[in-house]
Automatic annotation (TrEMBL):
Belongs to the ABC transporter superfamily. One of its GO terms (cellular component) is ATP-binding cassette (ABC) transporter complex, substrate-binding subunit-containing. The lineage of its organism: Bacteria, Pseudomonadati, Pseudomonadota, Alphaproteobacteria, Rhodobacterales. The keyword Transport applies. Residues 4-234 form the ABC transporter domain. GO terms for biological process: carbohydrate transport. The keyword Transport applies. GO terms for molecular function: ABC-type transporter activity; ATP binding; ATP hydrolysis activity. Keywords: ATP-binding, Nucleotide-binding, Transport. This is ABC transporter ATP-binding protein.
Length: 238
């Protein structure tokens, strides 16, 4: 577990500044949602925290360490994407344990870990299947399992449920809430879906064109929106 602190973060692509002097504090163990319309810079923010994108200005701290210029795997984060790619030729168990097999961890340890994670994500019966034999929701659980196996200090989710149908999305929301409750690991969750943010997060950060429009609890945003943009986005009367 660890807090995440962003100070003065900017990001320019060519001459286009998509994140502008952003400061953000994500408390240790919190579930923070980054909420905003398409193109406002959510994925770019997450990718900079993960180290998949460089920052133009500013610093990033995770726990007690400054990680601004560290490579992704040295940051103690694991990311789950919207278009999660599982290895089609590997079983569920092998997909979950892929990073362990790369690290040449003993097979017995991998089996034990796969079983533990499968239990947490209700995948016990599916460990020997291939991705093609799974439903969308089951595949997304395997993608989450692959992040869990790395035992990160911080989970980063980039719209992980947006490819699922409405019913599965509701179910997976509950499962993510339970996962956070069980693990108590810091989670930063990108979404353009205000209902998802309102039901999952203890802190919501509303992004508008690369700046924070408001950050606060769901209650604060709903009852005390700082401006029309937030009010419109959260859906309470302005
Ligand atoms: P969101 O995830 O909120 O939809 P993004 O972070 O993907 O938004 O994108 C924010 C802005 O940055 C957009 O205008 C997008 O076109 C631009 N952008 C993102 N990645 C790149 C890139 N690699 N090169 C140039 N522009 C980019
Ligand atoms: Mg995005």
């Amino acid at each position: 577990m660890a807090s995440v602190e962003l100070a003065g973060i900017s990001k320019r692509f060519g001459g286009h500044e998509v994140i502008r002097g952003l400061n953000l504090s994500v408390p240790d163990g919190s579930f923070t949602a980054l909420l905003g319309p398409s193109g406002c810079g959510k994925s770019t923010m997450l990718r900079m925290i993960a180290g998949l994108e460089t920052v133009s200005d500013g610093t990033i701290r995770i726990g007690t360490r400054e990680v601004t210029h560290l490579e992704p795997k040295a940051r103690g984060v694991a990311m789950v994407f919207q278009n999660y790619a599982l290895y089609p030729h590997l079983t569920v168990a092998e997909n979950i344990c892929f990073s362990m097999s790369l690290a040449r961890e003993p097979k017995a340890k991998q089996r034990e870990m796969a079983a533990r994670i499968a239990k947490m994500l209700h995948l016990e019966e599916l460990l020997e299947r291939k991705p093609a034999q799974l439903s969308g929701g089951q595949r997304q659980r395997v993608a989450i399992g692959r992040a869990l196996v790395r035992d990160p200090q911080v989970f980063l989710f980039d719209e992980p449920l947006s490819n699922l149908d409405a019913l599965l999305r509701v179910q997976m929301r509950l499962e993510l809430a339970k996962l956070h409750n069980d693990l108590k690991t810091t989670m930063i969750y990108v979404t353009h879906d205000q209902v998802e943010a309102m039901t999952l997060a203890d802190q919501i950060v509303v992004l508008d064109k690369g700046v924070i429009s408001q950050a606060g609890s769901p209650w604060e945003l709903y009852n005390r929106p700082a401006n029309r943009f937030v009010a419109g986005f959260i859906g309470s009367p302005a």
